TrEMBL record:
Keywords: ATP-binding, DNA-binding, Helicase, Hydrolase, Isomerase, Nucleotide-binding. This is DNA 3'-5' helicase. Residues 13-290 form the UvrD-like helicase ATP-binding domain. It comes from Tianweitania sediminis. Its EC number is 5.6.2.4. Belongs to the helicase family. UvrD subfamily. One of its GO terms (biological process) is recombinational repair. Gene3D superfamilies: 1.10.10.160, P-loop containing nucleotide triphosphate hydrolases, PCRA, domain 4. GO terms for molecular function: 3'-5' DNA helicase activity; ATP binding; DNA binding; hydrolase activity.
Amino acid sequence: MLSDRALVRALAELQGNPEQAAAVVEKGHCVVLAGPGSGKTKTLTIAMARALIQDVPDPRGVACITYNNDCAIELETRLARLGITPGDRAFIGTVHSFALSQVIGPYARCVPVGLPADFKVASKSQMRAAVEVAHGISIGGYGNPHDRWKFASEKRVRDVDRTRPEWRGCNPELADFVEAYEAELRRQGLIDFDDMPLIAYRMIKENLWIRDAVRARFPVLFVDEYQDLGHALHELVLLLCFEGDIRLFAVGDTDQSIYGFTGANPELLESLTRRSDVRTIRLRFNYRSGAKIIRASLGALGEERDYHGIDGAPDGDLSFWPVPYGHDNQAEAVAKTIIPKLVEQGFELGQIAVLYRAAWLGDKVATALKEAAIPFFRTDTNALVKRSSRLARFIEECARWIAGGWRDAEPPYARLLSQAKTLVYGRHASEREEQELSAQLMGFLTASLGTSETTHAWLQRVARGLITPWRTIARNSEQEWDVCDEMISNTDPARDLDMPLAHFAGRTEGSGRVNLSTLHSAKGREFDAVIMYGVNASDMPSTRDKSSPGSLREARRLFYVGVTRPKKHLSLVYQEHHHSPWVFELYQRSQQN
Ligand SMILES: Nc1ncnc2c1ncn2[C@@H]1O[C@H](COP(=O)(O)OP(=O)(O)OP(=O)(O)O)[C@@H](O)[C@H]1O
């Protein structure tokens, strides 16, 4: 339970930092801008707890929007430490789930948006087919529809307000393409992912009573990682907060903007700081990393910033690992030399992370670690348990309960039931629905106790016993039910991927396993030691990164995100005589004072 005592303790922790302390008690619109490790997320979570206790009377609550499910889960974990759990008074989720569960779900049937009551989210193949139909109608079928769609979908997420002249004034044929595509989806009772914030925006803009209803429920809106959220969220914020009187508390760092390919634009956050009705607070200390790592990170960014380590913090250390030949040899060096050396220096495996650009590089590291018998936990797209998938995490928690967790309530059954409720009903289930769900879940879990099934066989039973019946009744159309099938395929015994259920159940983070993550998924996280793998001249930046100044800048920011994750030690691994140019700049800057 959210308690005054936990809040008093949390507020006391910020007293040494006047900027953080001022931000959490701010009663007007507030934007906190700061570099890595400066306590933005900590400030946001405490501000949220304070608002819930002191500013917003029950049953009203607050909403907190963030970029993706990874970030939402990280926030939920931090808020849970302050006694806040998502529920009626606190919405925590992505902008898509906010749009779907707080605007479209409750109000679409009251306004003419052209959605049937039982609308569904389109699958990838339905979206591709709709693009092809729309291309035939709007462009006459000339050229490759999917190549053309890339430009159309960029316009779709950028020009959010279609009543403005830019929508038809600039590239009208792309506007036609988008409209034909959306009409084709609607004809089938479908919406897609990008539709969610766009439809919510239009619903609110055209029906101001919906904005009032959202404000009645959530008088304060928190936004984490604002720089990674695109135009649709920004327009929603302008509508809800600056035209609609909901209080905004946003945090972000333009130097860590790494989702340009999804339409994110760091300028949107900058534009908020120029508003006279917003108080901008800049944090100056980096609590995470030693001074040497902070200096190195400025070399990685290639620009100076006014961030400092805290007095008395250890300097931190860097090591450089030139390896003859390519990725395989570099992965071997990570497994056979670098990790053992870090362990020798006293680092725990669970506090070491290996970061890389793409999941296929993670495969190479995983293979080398397997051969060296080093346990690891993957959080990239090739991971068995997708960190970003609530369904995958729920399945893993069920396995933990079966593999002994039921004895000491770790995880407690109530948590499993609440996760199941969210997956199927999006949190609001009737008493009868909840009872039926519980009977089904409890029946399944108890039938799994004491069996000697492997993970693959058990997952097949999960699919038959839970997923198949649930996906037919699911109201929460956002859920990716196919994740269970992916897990079944990723444990295929024919490819020697199966494992005992107890082994699968122990695959949680921080349990003595090295963390393997893409740079994107490492965002917002921290580790004692970080190994940046594959920092080669041809990978960072890649030829694709060099195709435009914007993508080159974004690649550099991605490198910076990785370099700013360690608290105490940063290792860089690259091909001998073929290192990224940024490694050299980083080295030079780390040597200066
Ligand atoms: N006032 C403070 N006193 C002590 N430790 C703090 C303070 N503020 C933040 N920290 C610690 O600093 C670390 C970084 O904080 P946090 O993750 O909130 O930073 P951030 O700005 O969100 O980082 P990033 O942008 O890199 O994700 C955490 O370990 C946090 O507990």
